[in-house]
Design a protein that fits this description.
The complex is a heterodimer of chains A (180) and B (919).
Chain A: H1 2-21, E1 46-48, H2 63-67, E2 73-80, E3 86-95, H3 104-108, E4 114-116, E5 131-132, H4 134-137, H5 150-153, E6 169-172
Antiparallel strand pairs in A: 1-4, 2-3, 3-5
Chain B: E1 2-6, E2 9-13, H1 19-25, E3 49-53, E4 62-65, E5 76-78, H2 82-97, H3 113-121, E6 132-134, E7 144-146, H4 156-164, E8 171-173, E9 180-182, H5 196-200, E10 206-208, H6 209-212, E11 222-227, E12 236-242, E13 245-251, H7 264-268, E14 283-284, E15 295-296, H8 299-312, E16 316-319, H9 326-336, E17 341-342, H10 347-362, H11 370-375, E18 378-383, H12 386-389, H13 391-400, H14 405-411, H15 419-426, E19 433-437, E20 449-452, H16 455-469, H17 481-495, E21 500-505, H18 511-526, E22 532-536, H19 542-548, H20 553-561, E23 567-571, H21 581-590, E24 593-598, E25 610-613, E26 622-625, E27 630-634, H22 647-658, H23 674-682, E28 707-708, E29 739-740, E30 787-788, E31 814-820, H24 834-839, E32 844-847, H25 849-854, E33 862-867, E34 870-878, E35 886-890, E36 902-905, H26 906-909, E37 910-914
Parallel strand pairs in B: 1-5, 16-17, 16-23, 18-19, 18-21, 19-20, 21-22, 23-24, 24-25, 28-29, 31-35, 32-34
Antiparallel strand pairs in B: 1-2, 3-4, 3-5, 7-10, 8-9, 11-12, 12-13, 14-15, 14-25, 26-27, 27-30, 31-36, 32-35, 33-34, 33-37
Helix pairs in contact in B: 8-22, 9-22, 9-23, 10-18, 10-19, 16-17, 16-18
Classes of the chains: A alpha+beta (180), B alpha/beta (919).
Chain lengths: 180, 919
């Protein structure tokens, strides 16, 4: 007898809660007409950026592919003789059907080349369309980091920077000098 | 043994070591830079500081450099002492003050000793805010890249290059913090061992230029043990692959063979595997018209076609090869039958190999490994030009001349690892090294005495030495007094040595020098010495081929000419390198069907009706027998695309296809896996019985698992082929070895042939080999250094060789033309590597200046030499070391078909001479 009363009371309370919602504003976002705010550091689609001079930032060091926990990044280093052996990736491939958007690649990147951006709209009907090559990944801008230019601070010589012209470098040593 | 106490724990160590080596041997991590197990200590970098205490009551202690402190009994040290740690951290901080910020673009990154040591000492943040020193780099040739900014001034490079390897053109320049390690000016590093700088340099100053062009990090490389196929020494290498191309060759420590070092031919000659001339698909010409092109065909149709031809054949000739694995040769021998199996080398070479085998089979003197050669304290070289024919052996001899002066070092109670003190004590003293031959190289600067003469005279010198040592050995009666004196001096030196070594070789084609060397060794043995013999052979598996037996190439030619056979199977052999062009042409034209199994296109494949694409060394399993008779296993590193298969597998498939309807008993047809090939090989000859012990068999498992070829951190698994397929195909199965083409499987201590790469947590560079040894510099744990197939059984000297040749007499119009081997250029496979090809010199003819004058030639002029049906364009070099009446012909690809040694009328043969243009 008492059980019946408890069931009935709970039923009424439940119905009352549902009834109350009838008069509150809905929370559903009308995507894609309405778009949510995604903070700049949101981890979405991966891009390859360029340095402030417009050159590819990626130097094909393989650290992103090593950091990737699902091994979805593959690349091959190549050199450009005309740019004094400046390294770049011959191909750079991300299999987004495997990517878990963990951001480890971005963390590992020593040149700020690889960046995760606030874009998640990558749905495809065919999995093979989720394989992004370098042409698909490379953007024309610097992404989140505007100033960093790896070759300005690295000690190597490039086409437009001789030894000693980098940031915080002495001019090349004159081996024949005995001056202290 | 001594006991040392490290951080209050006692360790048993060898008291002849220093503390650094002792600690590393026990797996205690002490950082270091300038010390190297093969080059001793100089105490330059101050990185290996530890605290030493007087006794257990001593609380304060003092900092010592562990590499400069002997591991005396009762030594009490602390590695973890805060003061020692702080000292080491500050040393590395100083070193890093000028080290550039370029690890991402540095090829050493990820396998850098400097990175490892920096992490080990805990230096993390850069405090120095001052600008960094920079240097200009040098162009050092096709092998080595130079980036001097990265230098930490440890001096290892010059110590190796100058002190260890005898190089002259690398040095240290400048002063104080502006030291420069490089050449006097841009130019190719001349030394034959320059590639070791890549491994010697603790950071990225010297890096592998061939690797640079297809760079991959160490953790992404799929690797396995390989045996260098470029000469007869059988140095162990680690071949590494990524996505279908062979990326590099590194040294693989083997305490009995190559130790820590390789020659440049072995290190940079690997790119033939990636050559554009690779045969990747079976090719078939169905008609009999040889002018028609061959068409690509699939594997089963090709086998069907070939089997059909074999069934219809009235007699098959199988031509083996000294550069093919033992298993492949045995497969061919099984397919065609022992009577129809020919060794694929010319008659003379076959005779020489036969003589060498007999010397080891019947004589009491064992062959010398490279390690034995390093330990020898008196060396006599009769004939071979070691630097060009067997370079790593020349490097071993450079160490052997330090053996005798070491006695003085021991007398002075200087530990042998104390390199600076040893050099000071030794000064310019050198142990006895006598070299006789017909060519001068820079190695002759290190000899006690040398003798340039014709092979017959070299042999006479050898016989005379034997005669001077043992009264029973035959003597040479008519010898000039200075040669007799030289022979006496050599005999005395060898008699005073504990571990004398005699080296001869097949290079000059002289049987007498081999016999003379054997006589010397046997005479020494009779006098109660413990000599060793070493014969330099032509190719990687020459010894293995000799053990199999079989006729020479000339016999094969006869078989076809006489109509005994009409079908030829050529296994990994370019016949045009081994016989006259006319003979080979006639042979191939007469044969109805020519089948060639090879990996690279060459002149013989151009004539083939059926070409079966063979796997190269790093794409196959196999065994090579090196010049000391040591059988060593090489493992497949990767699976090549296309129809490429191992030669033995092609032959086994062919046997199976052939025997389908013909009831011919051929065991080869039953081979399924490599283990079948090994066990069949073990039964071919009594000496090969221990073939199965060379390396673990395919069924070998640890904790029930296979052993991975890839590192734990191999990357790109789910994207490397995703542009081709989304289905992530499984890695190829490997039924032939205990290794797997994956990163999954057993991790832990392994028998040495199964180690993929040397790596231990915290030790990413090749210096990690220390962590694989119980005693630094000693053998690896579970080392399987190969099986020596030829051990002496006799205790007494057999019948002496008595056929002493007559002294060489220069002829009036004829010259004896001898081969001059070239470290870059004489090896068939390495020539196909672009980096090596860049180093191949133009072909030249070397003559004594007096002969040059007789022919009225000018030094450095160019001549056209018409000989053996071909005209060769040669430069003329006047060399006083070339004996009068002889000529030396450099064996580079342009003249690879020339049959030497042979007599030549130079008056007749030299057609035109183009004078050198006035500079």
């Amino acid at each position: 007898m008492t059980n019946t009363w408890i069931y009935a009371r709970n039923l009424v309370i439940g119905l009352w809660v549902v009834f109350k919602r009838t008069f509150s504003t809905p929370v559903t976002v009308q995507y894609p007409e309405e778009r949510p705010y995604l903070p700049p550091r949101w981890r979405g689609r991966i891009v390859l950026t360029r340095d402030p001079d417009g050159e590819e930032r990626c130097v094909a060091c393989y650290l992103c592919s090593a950091a990737c926990p699902v091994d979805c990044i593959a690349l091959q280093a190549a050199d450009r003789p005309e740019a004094h052996d400046r390294r770049y990736p011959e191909f750079f491939r991300i299999n987004f059907s495997r990517c878990i958007y963990c951001g480890m690649c971005e963390e590992a990147c020593p040149t700020n080349a690889i960046q995760l951006i606030p874009d998640f709209e990558q749905s495809e009907y065919a999995r093979r369309n989720l394989v992004y090559e370098k042409e698909d990944l490379l953007i024309s801008g610097t992404g989140k980091y505007h100033d960093y230019n790896f070759y300005r601070v690295a000690g190597v010589k490039t086409c437009d920077k001789d030894k000693g012209q980098g940031a915080n470098e002495f001019p090349p040593v004159d081996v024949k000098s005995l001056m202290p | 043994m001594a006991n040392i106490i490290v951080d209050n724990k006692s360790y048993a160590v060898d008291e002849r070591q220093n503390l650094l080596a002792a600690c590393l041997g026990h797996g205690l991590n002490v950082p270091y830079f300038c010390w190297h197990p093969a080059m001793g200590s100089v105490g330059a970098c101050r990185q290996c500081a530890v605290k030493q205490f007087k006794d257990d009551k001593d609380q304060s202690g003092r900092l010592v450099m562990s590499c400069m402190t002997p591991a005396a009994n009762g030594t009490r040290i602390s590695i973890d002492d805060p003061e020692a740690k702080a000292f080491r951290a500050s040393v590395i901080e100083w070193l890093m003050v000028n080290h550039p910020h370029d690890c991402p673009v540095c090829d050493e990154g990820g396998e850098c000793h400097l990175q490892d040591m920096t992490v080990m000492t805990g230096h993390v943040y850069r405090r120095s805010r001052f600008p960094k020193r920079t240097h200009r780099n040098q162009a050092l040739g096709p092998f080595i890249r130079h980036e001097m900014n990265r230098c930490i001034q440890c001096y290892r490079c010059v110590r190796f290059y100058r002190d260890y390897a005898g190089g002259r053109d690398l040095n240290v320049f400048g002063a104080h913090d502006a030291l420069y390690f490089g050449r006097e000016q841009d130019g190719t590093l001349e030394n034959e061992f320059s590639g070791n700088l890549v491994e010697i340099c603790p950071t990225g100053v010297f890096t592998d230029k061939t690797f640079f062009h297809h760079y991959t990090r160490k953790w992404d490389l799929q690797s396995a043990q390989s045996i260098c196929p470029h000469c007869s020494l059988g140095c162990n290498t680690t071949a590494s692959e990524r996505s279908g191309t062979l990326r590099r060759m590194t040294n693989r420590f083997n305490s009995q063979v190559n130790g820590y070092f390789l020659c440049d031919r072995g290190r940079f000659g690997y790119e033939y595997v990636n050559s554009e001339y690779r045969i990747k698909h079976p090719l078939v010409r169905s008609g009999t018209d040889r002018t028609k092109p061959r068409m690509p065909e699939d594997v089963s149709r090709t086998l069907e076609f070939a089997a059909d031809r074999l069934r219809k054949a009235c007699g098959i000739v199988g031509i083996g090869s000294p550069r093919a694995s033992l298993e492949a040769n045995v497969a061919l021998r099984g397919l065609v039958g022992p009577q129809q199996f020919y060794q694929g080398i010319d008659e003379q070479e076959r005779q020489l190999l036969f003589t060498i085998l007999n010397v080891f089979r019947t004589g009491p003197v064992p062959s010398a490994s490279l390690h034995d050669a390093e330990q020898a304290d008196a060396v006599l070289v009769l004939g071979p030009d070691l630097l060009n024919e067997a370079p790593r052996l020349a490097l071993a001899l450079l160490q052997s001349i330090r053996q005798q002066p070491m006695e003085r070092v021991d007398e002075l109670k200087i530990p042998q690892w104390d390199e600076a003190a040893v050099r000071n004590a030794v000064q310019n003293r050198r142990g006895p090294l006598f070299m006789a031959g017909h060519r001068q190289t820079w190695l002759h600067e290190y000899t006690t005495d040398h003798y340039f003469a014709a092979p017959d005279d070299v042999a006479r010198l050898g016989f005379a030495v034997a005669g001077s040592i043992g009264p029973e050995a035959p003597t040479v009666p008519d010898l000039s007094s200075d040669v007799r004196d030289l022979a006496q001096r050599i005999a005395d030196a060898l008699m005073h040595a504990q571990r004398p070594l005699i080296i001869a070789g097949t290079g000059s084609g002289s049987q007498a020098t081999l016999e003379a060397a054997a006589n010397v060794a046997w005479a020494l043995h009779q006098q109660g010495k413990h000599p060793r013999l070493n014969f330099v052979l032509p190719e990687a598996n020459s010894a293995g081929l000799a053990l199999l037996g079989g006729g020479s190439l000339n016999d094969a030619f006869d078989a076809i000419r006489q109509g005994k056979a009409d079908t030829v199977i050529v296994l990994e052999n370019d016949l045009y390198r081994r016989a006259d062009q006319a003979n080979v042409n006639a042979f191939l034209d007469k044969a109805q069907t020519v089948m060639v199994i090879d990996s690279l296109e060459h002149r013989t494949t151009a004539h083939a009706d059926v070409i079966l694409p063979a796997a190269t060394g790093p794409e196959s399993n196999g065994t090579f027998v090196n010049q000391e008779g040591r059988a060593q296993r090489f493992y497949q590193v990767f699976v090549q695309n296309g129809g490429v298969k191992e030669s033995w597998r092609w032959l086994s498939d062919l046997a199976r296809a052939t025997s389908q309807d013909v009831e011919r008993e051929s065991r080869v047809a039953t081979w399924r896996t490599f283990d079948d090939a090994v066990s069949a090989t073990a039964m071919v000859a009594p000496e090969l019985a221990r073939m199965g012990e060379v390396a673990p068999s395919a069924s070998f498992r640890l904790v029930g698992q296979k052993i991975p070829r890839q590192s734990e951190r191999c990357s790109g698994r789910t994207s490397l082929v995703s542009h081709l397929t989304m289905h992530e195909p499984p890695p190829p199965a490997d039924q032939d070895s205990p290794l797997a083409f994956t990163m999954e499987g057993y991790r832990g201590p392994l028998p040495s042939p199964l180690i993929s790469q040397f790596w231990t947590p915290g030790w990413n560079s090749i210096q990690a080999v220390n962590t694989y040894q119980n005693e630094v510099g000693g053998p690896l744990r579970d080392e399987m250094p190969g099986v020596r197939l030829l051990e002496p059984v006799a205790t007494k000297a057999p019948a002496w060789f008595t056929s002493i040749p007559h002294a060489f007499q220069p002829a009036s119009r004829q010259w004896l033309l001898l081969p001059l081997s070239a470290v870059f250029g004489s090896d068939e496979l390495s020539n196909r590597s672009p980096a090596i090809a860049e180093r191949i010199a133009k072909p030249f003819l070397s003559l004594h200046p007096s002969d040059g004058a007789r022919l009225s030639l000018e030094n450095h002029s160019t001549i056209d030499l018409a000989w053996q049906g071909t005209t060769y364009s040669l430069a003329v070099h006047f060399e006083p070391s070339t004996p009068v009446g002889m000529g030396g012909l450099s064996l580079v690809p342009e003249v690879s078909g020339v049959r030497v040694p042979a007599w030549i009328d130079l008056f007749e043969a030299i057609k035109t001479e183009r004078k050198r243009r006035a500079a």
